[in-house]
Amino acid sequence: MSLTGGNRNDVTQLLPSLDKVPAVAGLVGRPTPDMLFADRGYDHDKYRRLLWQRGIRPVIAERGGQHGTGLGTFRWVVERTISWLHGFRRLRIRWERRDDIHEAFLGLATCLITHRHVQHLC
């Protein structure tokens, strides 16, 4: 992921975020996701076309359409994870001026969240 200012539109970071998906160990070539789920904010023909060119099927809610399209079950996972990250006060509001320090705190929070879930499995 790339770290941007809070006043940037999310859709502008769609393709750079896809470019930063790491390769999966043991697989030949660069893996790409089969489909991409997104909310109404990503409903633009330009981005749908660019996703199709990359071989990714866009599953994007349409603007003006009725709510309850079924994307909520997938979006809930993302919203829940953001909520967990906001449980760490240093990440709720970005106080650090340096990107590397903020990303280090983000990595620490991710490790702690993962550790807590692994403890529940054992």
From TrEMBL:
Residues 2-112 form the Transposase IS4-like domain. InterPro entries: Transposase_11 (IPR002559). GO terms for molecular function: DNA binding; transposase activity. One of its GO terms (biological process) is DNA transposition. This is Transposase.
